[in-house]
Amino acid sequence: MNGSFAEELYSESLKLSKIDLDSTSSAKNQALDFQDSDRDASLLDDESLWNGSDVELDKSSDLDREWQQRRDQFHTMGYRDGVIAGKEAAAQEGFNIGFKQSVPVGYNWGVVRGVTSAVGLLPEGLKEKLIETEEKRNQFQKLYKSVQSLSTKDALRLFNDAIVAERNREQVGNAEISSTDEIENQLESYYRELQSLVLGSPLINLQLKEQGTIP
Description:
mainly alpha; 6 helices; 0% strand
């Protein structure tokens, strides 16, 4: 009887120990599973953070590239506009200088061609009445032929030579004078010669302006 009770008591103790062990093992397993799930969640959070940082970096890089492209584009546009404006300003300045230099000379040259042509084409009888001396008539005729021998292109070349000679004088001073400088401006010399002939012929009623001016 006593032996049977002891066996039953021992058997119950073993069952309880097994239950405790199973409970403890289950609790430990649950704790480990919970820790693993926390670790996985933490890893997922860290991964999402890193992925978020990569996205932000990509956006920042795109913005930087876009800004660089825009800046280069506007710099190029500004440089091109500046160059165009500079060329236009230089061209306008050159035109103003050329206009100021050429208009008086061109006007006087036109007067010389017009007057000498009018006198040169007159009949001899009218020339003798208008110009008293044969010497003056011959001088008018010589000037007329000299002027008529020059084409428009020749006149432009003479004008250009005079401008270049003037620049040379300004650069080297009066110490050196080239052959071109000695020739002077032929167009102006024709105008001066016409002035002299008109002054010596009172019947020619013509008011010539000072050289280098236009009315």
